[in-house]
Amino acid sequence: MVEDVVRSFGFLTLGTRMKRVGEKLQADTQRIMDELGAPLQAGQYPFLAAIDRLGPLTVGELAEATGVTQPGATRTVALLVELGMLDTEQSADDQRRRIVSLSREGKRLVATAKRDVWPRIDAAVTDLCGDLDGPLLEQLAAIEDGLAAAPLNRRAAKVKS
Amino acid sequence: MVEDVVRSFGFLTLGTRMKRVGEKLQADTQRIMDELGAPLQAGQYPFLAAIDRLGPLTVGELAEATGVTQPGATRTVALLVELGMLDTEQSADDQRRRIVSLSREGKRLVATAKRDVWPRIDAAVTDLCGDLDGPLLEQLAAIEDGLAAAPLNRRAAKVKS
DNA sequence: TCCATTTATATTACATGTTATATAATTGTG
DNA sequence: CACAATTATATAACATGTAATATAAATGGA
């Protein structure tokens, strides 16, 4: 077993390390969702959740709300329209804008996710991180070790009961 | 200005959020390196640093040390060989293994980076995160706000004097 | 010793992020 | 009120991660 240099380098490689931990969390989250039958990718839910919370939004507003660039938002919206989860209409007063809203199916999916899926994910992540405190690098190490010891989907199953 | 839903959702969207913060840190780090004339991408340095620290490694060991998958390591190694920073040789006792080492130029780059670049990056990130404490979500918020207020390259310039 | 299994690396296909730029609609100003 | 500048979205080109699979070498047991 070789030393994990990204972990060893401390603040110097913090960006790489946080990105890596984030990707691992997302991958584990995806597994929970797969097990529960949720039909989308983890990274797509923020788009649905943003509209659910804020009402119909333009592409640019969705980019802001989800923290991706505008081209990223354009692409994900196109995909979710393709999948039947979102509808778009041209804005009446500004023909450049596209107003994105939840389709009937999108609304159903959000309702189900809010009830059955998101609470489990939240509980699993809380199980992993909720009690953490102290310096950032120590918390990151605890998260990495915690994920290695028991991935989120195992924690979700545990918490569920 | 639209609400940042990934931030609002707390633990539920922690993976997306950490990935995003990590990407932002990396992008800022890249800008420091660009300003200092470092010729590689931020994400490529862990490969050089791993070999500098641990000596020549196989592709698989590099994957472990840098925390990427083996195909990712294969590709990055190929790129860095192309750029003249790494050399590879077939292992004598196991023809499947490729031993990856720093080229003369790679060694020179690591020496320069260790002296001139990495300390600045470390100092800038420490300026941003070094004093943080408390619950994870609060620290993440502080990092996001801190980066928005003064990106890492500004902090590097400040610390440098 | 032969051959099935395992292991190390490479390849393929894809997901999802970015930046730079194109296009079309709107706005503001001389 | 025409036209330059701005704004919203789309597209293109690329970077970098993954999983699944192919290929070639090493290993181990009948």
Primary descriptors:
homodimer, Arc Repressor Mutant, subunit A, DNA-binding, 161 residues, three-stranded antiparallel sheet, mainly alpha
Question: How would you describe this protein?
Answer:
Chain A is mostly helical and 161 residues long. The first copy, chain A, has a single domain, classed as Arc Repressor Mutant, subunit A, CATH 1.10.10. The first copy, chain A, is 66% helix and 7% strand. Chain A has a three-stranded antiparallel sheet with strand order 1-3-2. In chain A, a hairpin with a 7-residue loop joins strand 2 and strand 3. In chain A, helix 2 runs parallel beside helix 7 and helix 4 packs across helix 5. Chain A is globular, with a radius of gyration of 18 Å. At the A-B interface, helix 1, helix 2, helix 3, helix 4 and helix 6 of A face helix 1, helix 2, helix 3, helix 4 and helix 6 of B. Chain A binds a DNA duplex (30 and 30 nucleotides) through helix 2 and helix 5.
> Strand order, biggest sheet of chain A?
1-3-2
Listing every helix as H and every strand as E from the N terminus to the C terminus, the arrangement of chain A reads HHHEHHEEHHH
* Residue-averaged pLDDT of chain A: 93
Percent strand of chain A: 5-15%
Number of strands of chain A: 3
Number of helices of chain A: 8
User: Helix/strand/pairing class of chain A, anyone?
Assistant: mainly alpha
> Rg of chain A to the nearest angstrom?
18 Å
User: In oligomeric terms, what are we looking at?
Assistant: homodimer
CATH superfamily of chain A: Winged helix-like DNA-binding domain superfamily/Winged helix DNA-binding domain
Helix content of chain A: 55-70%
CATH architecture of chain A: Orthogonal Bundle
Indicate the CATH class of chain A: Mainly Alpha
The largest sheet of chain A is: 3 strands, antiparallel
Shape of chain A: globular
